[in-house]
Write a structure and sequence with these properties.
Helix content is 55%, strand content 0%. By secondary structure, the chain is mostly helical.
C-alpha cells in the first residue's frame, strides 16, 4: 500500500505539471519577430521560421486578427474550448507559430519550398500541421511542401515542450539543419524517415496520452526520433561486419557510402554499430557551441534515456526487447506478489537504496524502457499507418534492400541477406511473403504486447491508459489488405524497379 501510494503520487505529478504546458490561444497571435532572428543566423533555405531581420515591421506581411473570418490561425474545435486538453492547446500554439513563419518565408520566395505557396496551399499547410498528433497523419504531404521535412517537423514538435524544457531556439535551428544535412540520400533511411519517426512518437505523447514523471522525457523521445538514424549508410550491420572483416572493400566506395563506414563494425565491436554512430553524432552536435541548443545539465539528464532509446532501435535486440516486455507485463499483472526474476534483471537498484529509493529507481527504469519500446514501435511501425502510406514506405525500404543486395553480390559474390527481400531478381510472390512476414511476425506481436501493457489497471504501469488501439486496428486491416494485395506481374517474373510504381499503387 505504501509503495502504491508513492507511485500514485509520482503519477499525479504528471497531471499537476500539465497546466505548465497550457498556452493561451492568444499566444498564437504574437509577432513573428522572435523567429525572424533565427533566419538571420541560418542563412540557408529553411522550411521554417522567419525571414530577413532587416525587414521593417511595416513591410512584413500582416496576420489578420484572430476574430477575422479570414484568420489563418487555428482555433480549438467548436464546443471544445472548455474541454480541450492542454496538449491540444500546446500543439495548436506551436503549429500556428510555425505556420505563420512558413507563410512569411514563402512570401519572400524561399527556395526551402517547392514553389510559391498559394492560398489553398497555405490553408492545407495549416490543416496538416494541426493534425501532427493524429496517428494517420501523412508525412509525405509535408515532403511535398518543403525540402526540409525533418527540420520543420522537429521544430514544431520540440517547441510544443518549450515550457517544460529550456533550450536556445536559434541553436535548435542550427542543430536541426545539421541533423537533416547529416542524413544521407538513401532510399529509406533518410531525413524523411527521421521526421516520420519523430512525428509518430510525438503522436504517441500528444495524441495517445503517453506521459512521464520527468519533465524532459517526452521532449527526449521526440528528439530521439529525429536523430535515431542520422547518417545511416543504407546498409545493415551484417553487411558492414562482413565487409570490414574481409579487409578492403572490393566494390568502389561512392556516395552515399564513405570510407569511415568500413570501420564502424570494428570501432563498436559489432555491438549496434549504426546506433552507436547515431548517438555519437547527436552528442557531438549537442556539445558544440553553434548547435548545442540545450543547457549542459539538460544534456546530462537526457543522455542516458536518449542513448538507451536509440540503441533500442537495433533490430538485433528485437527478440530481447520482446522477452523483457513480456516479463514486465507478467510482473505488473502480479504486482505485490513475489516474483522469481524481476523484469529488469540483471539490472537492479543500488545496494544501499532504501525502499523509497528502490521504488523511484524501478519507476525511472521502467520509464526509460517504455521510451525504448515506443521509439522502436515508431521505427518499425509503418504497417500501422493507413495502407497507401504503408505501401509507399514499403517500396522505399525494398529499394534500399535491393541496392544492398546488388552490393553484396559485387562485394562477396553471393547474397548474405535473405534473397526474398534483398535480391532484385526475386519473384514478386517471394517479396510479397517477405513483407507479410515482417508485418505478421515482427510488427504485430510488438504492437499487440504494447496494447496489452497499456490496458493493465496496475497503477505502477507507466503507460497505463495510453490508447494505441488505432495503430493496432490499422495494422490488422493492413495485414488483411496485404494478403489480398495482387501483384501486377506474374510470380515467376523477375522484379524490376519502376519509378512509377508508387503512383500506380
Amino acid at each position: 500500500d505504501e509503495l502504491r501510494s508513492r507511485t500514485m503520487s509520482a503519477l499525479s505529478s504528471v497531471s499537476s505539471r500539465r497546466p505548465s504546458l497550457r498556452r493561451d490561444i492568444s499566444d498564437t497571435q504574437r509577432s513573428a519577430s522572435e523567429y525572424m532572428s533565427l533566419e538571420a543566423r541560418s542563412s540557408d533555405n529553411l522550411c521554417y521560421p522567419g525571414d530577413d531581420t532587416d525587414e521593417s515591421e511595416d513591410d512584413a506581411p500582416k496576420e489578420p486578427p484572430a476574430t477575422s473570418s479570414s484568420s489563418k490561425t487555428l482555433q480549438l474545435p467548436p464546443g471544445s474550448t472548455g474541454n480541450a486538453t492542454t496538449r491540444q492547446r500546446a500543439a495548436i500554439a506551436a503549429s500556428n507559430r510555425a505556420v505563420s513563419q512558413v507563410l512569411r518565408q514563402s512570401s519572400k520566395g524561399s527556395t526551402g519550398f517547392s514553389g510559391e505557396l498559394s492560398s489553398d496551399s497555405s490553408k492545407k499547410l495549416q490543416e496538416m500541421i494541426y493534425k501532427l498528433a493524429d496517428w494517420n497523419f501523412d508525412i509525405f504531404e509535408v515532403a511535398e511542401m518543403t525540402q526540409r521535412p525533418l527540420s520543420f517537423v522537429g521544430f514544431v514538435c520540440l517547441d510544443a515542450y518549450s515550457k517544460l524544457v529550456d533550450f536556445d531556439k536559434p541553436k535548435l535551428v542550427e542543430f536541426l539543419r545539421e541533423i537533416e544535412g547529416s542524413y544521407r540520400k538513401v532510399p529509406y533511411h533518410n531525413s524523411l524517415h527521421g521526421a516520420s519517426v519523430a512525428r509518430c512518437v510525438y503522436s504517441f505523447c500528444a495524441g495517445c496520452g503517453l506521459a512521464f514523471t520527468q519533465e524532459y522525457m517526452e521532449f527526449t523521445i521526440v528528439l530521439a526520433g529525429l536523430v535515431h538514424d542520422v547518417h545511416h549508410p543504407g546498409l545493415t550491420p551484417a553487411f558492414l561486419s562482413k565487409a570490414s572483416m574481409d579487409g578492403e572493400w572490393l566494390s568502389p566506395i561512392t556516395p552515399p557510402l564513405e570510407e569511415a563506414d568500413m570501420e564502424l563494425s570494428l570501432k563498436y565491436n559489432d555491438q549496434s554499430p549504426l546506433e552507436n554512430m547515431h548517438c555519437a553524432i547527436t552528442f557531438q552536435l549537442l556539445t558544440q557551441d553553434r548547435t548545442g541548443f540545450l543547457p549542459k545539465d539538460e544534456v546530462m539528464a537526457m543522455r542516458k534515456p536518449l542513448v538507451r532509446a536509440i540503441l533500442g532501435t537495433d533490430m538485433a535486440k528485437h527478440a530481447e526487447t520482446m522477452t523483457r516486455l513480456a516479463a514486465l507485463i507478467d510482473n505488473l499483472e502480479h504486482e505485490g506478489e513475489s516474483v522469481a526474476v524481476p523484469w529488469h534483471w540483471p539490472a537492479k537498484p543500488p545496494a544501499t537504496a532504501d525502499e523509497e529509493q528502490r521504488a523511484m529507481w524501478e519507476r525511472l527504469y521502467q520509464e526509460e524502457f517504455i521510451m525504448e519500446l515506443f521509439l522502436h514501435a515508431a521505427d518499425i511501425g509503418n504497417p500501422t499507418l493507413p495502407f497507401p502510406q504503408w505501401v509507399k514506405w514499403n517500396r522505399l525500404v525494398q529499394r534500399e534492400f535491393n541496392d544492398q543486395g546488388d552490393r553484396e553480390l559485387a562485394e562477396f559474390g553471393e547474397l548474405i541477406s535473405p534473397p526474398a527481400g534483398f535480391d532484385r531478381n526475386s519473384t514478386v510472390m517471394a517479396e510479397h511473403a517477405f513483407t507479410k512476414g515482417f508485418m505478421q511476425y515482427l510488427c504485430l506481436p510488438l504492437f499487440q504486447k504494447l496494447h496489452d501493457l497499456t490496458q493493465l489497471p496496475c497503477p505502477s504501469s507507466v503507460c497505463r491508459g495510453v490508447n494505441i488501439s488505432g495503430c493496432l486496428d490499422n495494422l490488422k486491416k493492413n495485414i488483411e489488405a496485404w494478403e489480398d494485395y495482387k501483384p501486377r506481374r506474374e510470380a515467376t517474373e523477375p522484379r524490376e524497379d519502376d519509378d512509377d510504381d508508387d503512383a500506380q499503387d
